[in-house]
Amino acid sequence: MRRLASLLLALGLGAGLGAGLVVAAPLAASAHDVLERTSPADGTTVSTMPASVVLTFSEDPLTIGAQVVVTGPSGPVSSGAPTISGRDVTQAVAPNAPGGDYTVTYRVTSDDGHPVSGTFSFHATIGLDGSTATAGATVHVRPVETEEQAAARSSLLVPVLLTVVSTILLLCLAGYLVLRSREADRRPEETRPSQPG
Ligand SMILES: [Cu+2]
Question: Which of 38, 77, 143, 153 could form a disulfide with 97 if both were Cys (CB 3.0 to 4.6 A apart)?
Answer without folding.
Answer: 77
